[in-house]
Amino acid sequence: MKMGDVISQLLPLVLMLVFFVSLGLFVNRLVRNQKERTASTMEIERKLDHIIKLLEKQQS
């Protein structure tokens, strides 16, 4: 086997490996960001509920 043959066989395998690793990292980052956004949204909702209760109490 010549060196060109080895490279021509390994290059697609390496590119596929890089593609799948990149795809996995991308999906992992999306999931992590979604969890952070959900936690942030819940915290904002909790604070807004508290503000609404204080305003209702103040009006009473």
From TrEMBL:
Membrane spanning stretches: 6-27
Key words of the record: Membrane, Transmembrane, Transmembrane helix
UniProt KW Transmembrane keyword: yes
Lineage: superkingdom: Bacteria
Pfam families reported for this sequence: DUF4083
Protein name per Swiss-Prot or TrEMBL: DUF4083 domain-containing protein
Species annotation: Neobacillus piezotolerans
Highest classification ranks of the organism: Bacteria, Bacillati, Bacillota, Bacilli, Bacillales
